[in-house]
Each structure stands twice: as structure tokens, then as C-alpha cells.
Write a sequence for this structure.
């Protein structure tokens, strides 16, 4: 892709990700514990970060001992449950990298160490039908948050073996799944033709707003994080295409909700044969 050169000072690239922060999630946690009666015993080691608002209502159908919790913050509603003999958490963070990153940092501070991220993503490959599944293996860093956690580079890799466990669960269920890169942008209305073509040539299959930021935090904090996307609209043709014709909303909700069970099985399993 043609690159324009800039001599202007860029604050985003000033400093070093290893510089000491003025405030840290641990200080937020201390404040939380002093102002509430939160019990650390209720915090699971694994959690689903779900961008499907509706899916949390189904947890009681699939799992045992489902409880709403008051952590990590009054802005969020945590749901805990028992799956495959292990306590897990489920949260809907809202949309966009800033709020999702805030949630992830707080959950890590509470002690959660394994995360499965599920959500929709647009596709750069219109030949992939609406509802196709994608496991992203790397993300293009076309956003801002990741540069506060990792040195400048064009991509951030998915390094957790959790992605392989998600892939194994999908294959065990006989589901078709694709693998590749994703393009993370925080400017949804600046997805340009030049970038679409360049990133598709590099192997990007999807575009979304959060993953590069979350992966950078995961690398910085040394925790496990993997993602599974349900592909929806397309930016890969001559124009944007919502591709909503013909697929009932009820079927979309069912398919996306079922992805929770895939990620939970992967999170709760130490190995999948």
C-alpha cells in the first residue's frame, strides 16, 4: 500500500510502553474493595467477553448456578456460571475498543486469566457467506490503544493456544471455520477502498473495532486471549453490503448465541482430544 510520509510529531508514538503509568488497575481494585463488599472468591479464572447483547439471557438454559454479580464495575453486569466443572464469567462490554479495553484491564486486575472474545465482524472477502465463522490469528493495528501497550508495529499476533482449542471445539461440532487476519480500526466511517484492498492482499478476512487493542493488553499483562467472529456485512465489494437479505433474525440470534458454548468449552478445557 502506498504510504504518505509525515514529519509531524505524533503524540501516539511518544514515550515507551514500559514507562510507568500514573494510575494502574491495581489501584482501581483497591478502591473497589474498600468501597464495596466484593468477595474475591466469586471471581472466576476464565471469562467470555461477548459483543452479543442478547446471548447472556441464554446462560441459564446451558449452565448451572447462574448468578449476576456486582463486579467489575457498576457500568457492567457480570454473570457467573458453572460449566464443565469450572466457574466462568460472561460480560457484555458495549462496543468499541476504549470501553472493552477498560473492562479487560479491570477483569485482569480482579484475577481473570483466560478470555474468549466473541462478536460480529465485517468481512473483506465477500465470497464468505453471512454467518461464516472466523478465528483471527493476528490483527492489523489501525487503532490507538495498542500503541500504549506494545512498541509500534503493523500487527499484533494471537499467541494463546486457546485459539487452537476453540478451533478444535468447532471441528468437533462439524462446523466450518476460517482462519486469517483481522483489521482493527477505530474509525468505522473511514474504511477506505485503498485499505480494504491492501489488507485483504495481506490475508485479512474481517474488520472490527476492538481486537488489536485487546490483544495488546493481553500481551502486556501476560494473560490468554482468543477470539471467534461471526461475519456479517461486507466491505470487500464495490460498495458496502449489509447482506441481511434472506436470513431471519431469529436464526442469527440462535447462531450467535451458540458461539458462547463453543468458547466456554474451550475456556474450561485444559485439552481437547
Amino acid at each position: 500500500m502506498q504510504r504518505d510520509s509525515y514529519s509531524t510529531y505524533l503524540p501516539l508514538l511518544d514515550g515507551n510502553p514500559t514507562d510507568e503509568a500514573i494510575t494502574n488497575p491495581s489501584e482501581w481494585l483497591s478502591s473497589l474493595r474498600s468501597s464495596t463488599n466484593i468477595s474475591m472468591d466469586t471471581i472466576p479464572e476464565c471469562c467470555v467477553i461477548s459483543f452479543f447483547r442478547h446471548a447472556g439471557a441464554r446462560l441459564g438454559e446451558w449452565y448451572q448456578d447462574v448468578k449476576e454479580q456486582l463486579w467489575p464495575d457498576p457500568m457492567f453486569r457480570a454473570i457467573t456460571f458453572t460449566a464443565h466443572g469450572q466457574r466462568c464469567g460472561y460480560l457484555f462490554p458495549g462496543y468499541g475498543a476504549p470501553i472493552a479495553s477498560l473492562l479487560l484491564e479491570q477483569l485482569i486486575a480482579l484475577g481473570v486469566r483466560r478470555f474468549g472474545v466473541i462478536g460480529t465482524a465485517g468481512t473483506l472477502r465477500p465470497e464468505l457467506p453471512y454467518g461464516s465463522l472466523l478465528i483471527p490469528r493476528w490483527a492489523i493495528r489501525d487503532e490507538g490503544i495498542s500503541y500504549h501497550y506494545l512498541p509500534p508495529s503493523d500487527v499484533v499476533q494471537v499467541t494463546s493456544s486457546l485459539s487452537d482449542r476453540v478451533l478444535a471445539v468447532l471441528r468437533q461440532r462439524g462446523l466450518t471455520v476460517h482462519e486469517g487476519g483481522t483489521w482493527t480500526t477505530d474509525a468505522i466511517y473511514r474504511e477506505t477502498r485503498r485499505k480494504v484492498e491492501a489488507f485483504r492482499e495481506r490475508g485479512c478476512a474481517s474488520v472490527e473495532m476492538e481486537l488489536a487493542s485487546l490483544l495488546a493488553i493481553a500481551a502486556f499483562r501476560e494473560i490468554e486471549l482468543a477470539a471467534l467472529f461471526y461475519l456479517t456485512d461486507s466491505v470487500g465489494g464495490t460498495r458496502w453490503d449489509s447482506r441481511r437479505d434472506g436470513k431471519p433474525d431469529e436464526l442469527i440470534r440462535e447462531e450467535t448465541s451458540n458461539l458462547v458454548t463453543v468458547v466456554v468449552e474451550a475456556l474450561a478445557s485444559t485439552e481437547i482430544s
